[in-house]
Amino acid sequence: MKRIISAAIFLILAGCQQATVYVYTENLEQSQLQSLEQALNKQSLPYEYTQLPVPREFTDATLMLSSDKILTHEAEQLAEIMQGLGYQAEIKYTTDANHFYNHGNIGFYLRAKNTTSFTMPARVLTTGCVEDKYNDLAVTFNDKQAHFTLTSGRKVSLNWDYLYGYLVIYYKNYSQTYSHLTPEVSTPFGMKPSDTYRYTARVNSPSWLNCSLQIVYMD
């Protein structure tokens, strides 16, 4: 009888030691939750949603890793999910005292961002593209979407946001971010002011997101 009980306890403990992602979300939009669910389904660890709020002392996007067993590849997958939703993950580490995150368990904390009031110019052009053929494409903005007119004439509409000083344009399950600059630009009429949104990293596809955006004020 004792052997049976001991075996049962061992199985329970072994099950508890399986690495799991514990997901905390707060005030995310339904579309963000759907994108998050799709992305979590594609990563390699089992996951569970919790009903607890994100701790106030955490940033909007935090990964809590267990210090006794760090699953680097899996943590990178989760950080990429956060990046795809327009966040930059902050990494924190627990100690052995917090048994909840022992054995490779990971806490995934994602909270809606505080946005700053910002207005994009109604129309900009692509510039400084990795591929020259995508320079001078027209991109128009409304309150929620950026409309790219491609070389074929086809229009693609993507959601955008302005977060922590960066323009963020969302494409499928990832995003492109742009830093806002106001350089003077050389024109046939002399130096003119501009609003320039310089892309911060290359994406694999589509290539027309590897372009900066710019409007030059001629008056």
Task: Tell me what the structure shows.
This protein has 3 helices and 14 strands. Residues 1-16 have low confidence and may be disordered. It has helices spanning 2-16, 30-42, 72-84, and strands at 21-26, 47-49, 61-66, 90-94, 106-111, 123-127, 138-141, 145-149, 155-163, 166-171, 174-181, 184-187, 190-199, 212-216. Helices cover 19% and strands 37% of the residues. With 219 residues, it is of the alpha+beta class. It is elongated and about 70 Å long. α2 links the parallel β1 and β2. The longest helix is centred in the N-terminal third of the chain and has 15 residues, at 2-16. The strands form 2 sheets. An 8-stranded antiparallel barrel has the order 6-7-8-9-10-11-13-14. The protein has a 5-stranded mixed sheet with strand order 2-1-5-3-4, with helices on one face.
Notable traits:
disordered N terminus; 219 residues; elongated; alpha+beta
Q: Compute the gyration radius: what is it?
A: 23 Å
Low-confidence stretches: 1-16
Shape: elongated
What is the helical fraction, as a range of percent? Answer: 10-25%
Q: What characterizes the major β-sheet?
A: 8 strands, antiparallel, barrel
The overall average pLDDT, rounded, is 84
List strands and helices in order, with pairings:
Elements: H1 2-16, E1 21-26, H2 30-42, E2 47-49, E3 61-66, H3 72-84, E4 90-94, E5 106-111, E6 123-127, E7 138-141, E8 145-149, E9 155-163, E10 166-171, E11 174-181, E12 184-187, E13 190-199, E14 212-216
